[in-house]
Automatic annotation (TrEMBL):
<feature type="domain" description="HTH lacI-type">
    <location>
        <begin position="2"/>
        <end position="56"/>
    </location>
</feature>
<keyword id="KW-0678">Repressor</keyword>
<dbReference type="InterPro" id="IPR028082">
    <property type="entry name" value="Peripla_BP_I"/>
</dbReference>
<keyword id="KW-0804">Transcription</keyword>
<dbReference type="Pfam" id="PF00356">
    <property type="entry name" value="LacI"/>
</dbReference>
<dbReference type="Pfam" id="PF13377">
    <property type="entry name" value="Peripla_BP_3"/>
</dbReference>
<dbReference type="InterPro" id="IPR046335">
    <property type="entry name" value="LacI/GalR-like_sensor"/>
</dbReference>
<dbReference type="InterPro" id="IPR000843">
    <property type="entry name" value="HTH_LacI"/>
</dbReference>
<keyword id="KW-0238">DNA-binding</keyword>
<dbReference type="InterPro" id="IPR010982">
    <property type="entry name" value="Lambda_DNA-bd_dom_sf"/>
</dbReference>
<keyword id="KW-0805">Transcription regulation</keyword>
<dbReference type="GO" id="GO:0000976">
    <property type="term" value="F:transcription cis-regulatory region binding"/>
</dbReference>
<protein>
    <submittedName>
        <fullName>LacI family transcriptional regulator</fullName>
    </submittedName>
</protein>
<dbReference type="GO" id="GO:0003700">
    <property type="term" value="F:DNA-binding transcription factor activity"/>
</dbReference>
Length: 338
């Protein structure tokens, strides 16, 4: 690979003149700048990004931290679509990504080692102290999905606004005469679980329906848990007549359990899935669903972080993108009320 010294020798100028010309700095005539740029092209010269970063005090890299296991991260439709949104925006803005699968260590380590300009933490629990430590150290960071309550001490966050779509979904089931409605949630300390349980209780209370804790089990978001918990719900003395699952993986597990029992959708059980991908789009019957705009959430997270890195000003504390509820063929009248 060619060096600045070779270009300087051919142009008959100093090393510093070549450096200023290639970095767009003052002190070089336009004619000389054009000559140096042309020589650099002919010699196939590329600036050393590490050296340039020392001058700019930026490395052009965003850290994407996922506090999960590798197995879970790389098999989850949610994380693959978040990554798509983040990477697309980062590439568009000229940044690279460093993927960090981190269950235990401080989130600040890559920043202090000058490996990244800022970090996006995806899949955080709302009480994860490591995120608040980033904000206290003034490290550029964005949390996805963020926090249950807005607070001046919170880092920036992007999320999907799930309340309205879930309200519509639950009200839809109540309108179909369902009274025993189950909702398989995610982790107990996940922001999404807290929000979805809140709207579940709101709708049930609004219509005077009994709230039974056993109908809203927590899970680890996996296919296996979707299968297991759906079986547990269906084995109850009074099983639910309608079921909502909180993500793609849980939905796949639930549908497999329903199929294994030869139950019909929606004649025997109405089902609403929550999806971030199109992995369930070919299911028969077509599934009534809540679509979570995960790619958009990832893209917004990257845009917020980059703006903060480049301007030093936070573009706002929370950016929420609405989820969408769509009625298809997997929900029907409660057979007990028909």
């Amino acid at each position: 690979m060619s060096t600045i010294l070779e270009i300087a020798k051919l142009a008959n100028v100093s090393y510093s003149t070549v450096s200023r010309a290639l970095n767009g700095q003052k002190g070089v005539s336009e004619a000389m700048r054009e000559k140096i740029v042309q020589l650099a092209k002919e010699l196939d010269y590329y600036p050393n990004s590490s050296a340039r970063a020392l001058v700019a005090k930026r490395v052009g890299v965003i850290g994407l931290i996922i506090p999960r296991t590798c197995e879970y991260t790389f098999t989850s439709p949610y994380y693959s679509h978040i990554l798509l949104g983040i990477s697309s925006m980062a590439t568009q803005r000229g940044y690279q990504l460093m993927l960090i699968i981190n269950e235990k260590n401080s989130y600040a380590i890559p920043y202090h080692r000058r490996q990244v300009d800022g970090v996006i933490v995806v899949g955080n629990h709302y009480d994860d102290q490591r995120i608040f430590d980033l904000a206290k150290q003034n490290i550029p960071c964005v949390a996805v999905p963020g926090f249950v309550k807005d607070s001046p001490g919170n880092p920036m966050s992007t999320t999907s606004d799930n309340y309205e779509a879930n309200y519509q979904a639950l009200t839809h089931l109540v309108g179909l005469k369902h009274r025993r409605i189950a909702y398989i949630l995610g982790h107990r300390n996940s922001k999404y679980s807290v929000e979805r349980l809140e709207v579940y209780r709101d709708v049930m209370n609004e219509h005077g329906l009994e709230i039974r804790e056993e109908y809203t089990p927590y899970s680890d978001f996996s296919v296996t848990d979707g299968f297991r918990l759906t079986g547990k719900l269906l084995d109850m003395p009074e099983p639910p007549t309608a079921l909502i699952c909180t993500n793609d993986s849980l939905s796949m597990g639930a549908l497999n359990q329903i199929k294994a029992r030869s139950l019909r959708i929606p004649q025997d059980l109405s089902v609403i899935v929550t999806c971030a991908s199109d992995i369930l789009s070919l299911h028969e019957p077509p599934l009534t669903h809540i679509h979570v705009p995960v790619v958009g959430v990832g893209s917004a997270a990257a845009a917020m972080l980059i703006e903060f890195i480049e301007t030093g000003e936070a573009p706002g504390e929370v950016h929420a993108i609405p989820a969408q509820f769509t009625v298809r063929k997997s929900t029907g009248i409660n057979p007990e009320a028909a």
